[in-house]
Write a structure and sequence with these properties.
- This protein has 19 helices and no strands.
- By secondary structure, it is mainly α.
- It has two domains: 21-183, no CATH class; 189-472, no CATH class.
- α9 (187-220) packs antiparallel against α10, α10 (228-259) packs across α16 (387-397) and α13 packs antiparallel against α14.
- The longest helix has 38 residues, at 71-108.
- It is globular, with a radius of gyration of 23 Å.
- One of its GO terms (molecular function) is acyltransferase activity.
- Keywords: Acyltransferase, Cell membrane, Membrane, Transferase, Transmembrane, Transmembrane helix.
- It is a multi-pass membrane protein.
C-alpha cells in the first residue's frame, strides 16, 4: 500500500477513526497491529509470514537471553535471532546476487555451470524490519534494555505500519515504551501530524516525481553518452529526487505516527547542507547511519584501536552499508566511495586542525558546496543500473565523454536547475534549525497559505503513483 495513493488515505482515515473509539487500550493496540498486517499484506500477503517468523523468534530469543546467566546460552539464542533474520535477508535479497557471482567466478576458472534460474521475490521493507528486530535482541543481550513482557507490544513494535516499509529504523527504547500506556493525539499533534503528511506528499509527488524524476530518468536511461551539462543536471536531479522521495516517506511516516499520538525519530536533517562527509551521515538517513555506527562500526573497534584500524573499520562499515542498499556491485562502489571520502576527510582534519580560517563563513560555504558536488558523484553509482552506464555518465561529468546528443529539453534544464539551487539554498539557510521552529515563527496565515499551496500542487500534479525508491531496499 503506497502512501501516495487514495487507498492509503482511506485506510489511514479508518485506522484513525478506530484509534479514537472509546474502547480499551489493548483493543486499540490490536486494531493497530491488524491494520499494520493489512497494510503490509497489500503488497504480497504470504510475506506476512516472514514478519510473524521474525517476531516470534526474536521475542522468544530475547526472553531466553534475559533469563539466562550463562554466556554460552545467551550467545546461542543471540545467534538464533541473528541467524533467522540475516538468513531471511540473505536468501531473499542476496540469493540471486550470490548465485550470479558464483556462476561468473566458476566461468572464469573454466567451469561451465548453468543452474536453474532462481525466481526470488524481494519482500518489501525486509532490510528495515530485520535491522529493527535485530536491534531488540542485541540490546537485550548487551543488557542495554530489558525485554518487554508483552508480546502484543513487541509485535506492534516490529510491524507498526507508518515506518514498517522504509523506516525510520526505530530502536526498542524509542517505541516499545510508548505502547505501555494509551496514546492519542492532542489537537495540536493531530494538526501538526497532518501538516507533516502533507509536506511529505508534496516532497514525493511534486518535487521528486514531477519536477526531478523526468530529468534523472532521461540521463540515466540514455543508451549513449550525454553532454557535460546533461550529465551533471541528471546526477543533480537524481540527488534531489532521492532526497525528496525518501525524506518525503520519512516525513509522512513521522506525521502519521504523530496523528495516532506516537513519536518517531527524525531521519533527515538538511543533509545537503553538510560540511564534510561525517556531517552528511549525521544528517542523511540518520536511523540507518546511527544503527551502523552502534551495531557495526563500534563493535568492530571504532576509532579505539589506532588510525589504521579506524580506517579499516570505516571502510568495512560503508561497504556493508552500500551492500545493505542493494544486491549489486554498483552499491558496493557507492559505499566504497563514501568510505574513501571519510578517509580523505580524516586526513584533512589532521592537517588543518586548529586553523581559524577553516571556521570562516565563506570557507564553510565552499566546503559545503564541495561536499554537495562530491556526494552528487556518488549518486551516479547508486542510480546507474550497471558500471557501463555509470562510467559513461561520470566521463561526461568530467568532460571526457564522447560527444552525445542532448537528452534534456530546455524546460528540463531550467526546472532541474531551479529546484536544485532552491534545495541547496533552503538547506543551507535552515541547516541548524528545526522545521517546528520555522513553522512556529510564521504568521498563521502564511502557514495556512503554504499548506494550501502544497495541497493544490499535489492535486494538480497527482504524480505517477510510483513506489518510493527505498522500497526496493
Amino acid at each position: 500500500m503506497l502512501f501516495n495513493s487514495l487507498t492509503f488515505v482511506i485506510f489511514f482515515a479508518i485506522v484513525l477513526a478506530l484509534h479514537h473509539l472509546p474502547i480499551g487500550w489493548r483493543w486499540k493496540k490490536l486494531n493497530l497491529l491488524l491494520g499494520s498486517y493489512l497494510f503490509y499484506a497489500a503488497w504480497n500477503p504470504p510475506f506476512v509470514l516472514l514478519l510473524w517468523l521474525s517476531t516470534v523468534v526474536d521475542y522468544v530469543a530475547a526472553g531466553r537471553i534475559a533469563k539466562s546467566e550463562r554466556l554460552a546460552v545467551r550467545r546461542a539464542w543471540l545467534l538464533v535471532s541473528m541467524g533467522t533474520n540475516l538468513g531471511m535477508l540473505g536468501f531473499f535479497k542476496y540469493g540471486g546476487f550470490l548465485l550470479d557471482n558464483f556462476v561468473a567466478a566458476a566461468g572464469a576458472y573454466g567451469f561451465d555451470y548453468h543452474p536453474a534460474m532462481a525466481s526470488i521475490i524481494l519482500p518489501v521493507g525486509i532490510s528495515f524490519y530485520t535491522f529493527q528486530t535485530m536491534s531488540y535482541t542485541i540490546d537485550v543481550y548487551r543488557r542495554n534494555s530489558p525485554p518487554t513482557n508483552s508480546f502484543l507490544d513487541f509485535a506492534l513494535f516490529v510491524t507498526f505500519f507508518p515506518q514498517l516499509v522504509a523506516g525510520p529504523i526505530v530502536r526498542p527504547k524509542q517505541l516499545i515504551p510508548q505502547f505501555k500506556k494509551e496514546h492519542q493525539a492532542t489537537h495540536p499533534q493531530l494538526m501538526w501530524g497532518l501538516g507533516l503528511m502533507t509536506l511529505g506528499m508534496f516532497q514525493k509527488i511534486v518535487m521528486a516525481d514531477t519536477f526531478l524524476a523526468p530529468s534523472a530518468d532521461a540521463v540515466f536511461g540514455a543508451a549513449e553518452s550525454v553532454p557535460f551539462i546533461d550529465a551533471w543536471l541528471g546526477a543533480l536531479a537524481f540527488g534531489g529526487q532521492i532526497f525528496f522521495d525518501f525524506a518525503g516517506y520519512s516525513t509522512i511516516a513521522i506525521g502519521a505516527a504523530l496523528c495516532l499520538g506516537f513519536s518517531l525519530p527524525e531521519n533527515f536533517r538538511y543533509p545537503y547542507a553538510a560540511i564534510g562527509f561525517s556531517d552528511f551521515w549525521k544528517r542523511w538517513h540518520i536511523s540507518l547511519s546511527s544503527w551502523l555506527r552502534d551495531y557495526l562500526y563500534i563493535p568492530l573497534g571504532g576509532n579505539r584501536k589506532g588510525p589504521a584500524r579506524t580506517y579499516i573499520n570505516l571502510m568495512l562499515t560503508m561497504l556493508l552499508g552500500g551492500l545493505w542498499h542493494g544486491a549489486a556491485w554498483t552499491f558496493v562502489a557507492w559505499g566504497a566511495l563514501h568510505g574513501f571520502y571519510l578517509w580523505l576527510e580524516k586526513g584533512c582534519a589532521r592537517i588543518f586542525a586548529g586553523k581559524e580560517w577553516t571556521q570562516k563563513s565563506t570557507v564553510r560555504l565552499l566546503t559545503g558546496l564541495a561536499t554537495f558536488a562530491l556526494i552528487t558523484l556518488t549518486w551516479v553509482f547508486f542510480r546507474a543500473p550497471d558500471f557501463a552506464t555509470a562510467s559513461r555518465i561520470l566521463l561526461s561529468m568530467f568532460g571526457l565523454g564522447a560527444d552525445g546528443a542532448p537528452v534534456l529539453t530546455t524546460t528540463d534544464m531550467l526546472l532541474t536547475s531551479v529546484v536544485v539551487v532552491f534545495l541547496f539554498a533552503f538547506s543551507w539557510i535552515l541547516r541548524d534549525r528545526m522545521v517546528e521552529d520555522v513553522v512556529g515563527r510564521m504568521p498563521w496565515w502564511l502557514g495556512a497559505c503554504a499548506w494550501a499551496g502544497m495541497l493544490v500542487l499535489i492535486i494538480l500534479t497527482q504524480g505517477g503513483g510510483g513506489a518510493f525508491i527505498y522500497f526496493q531496499f
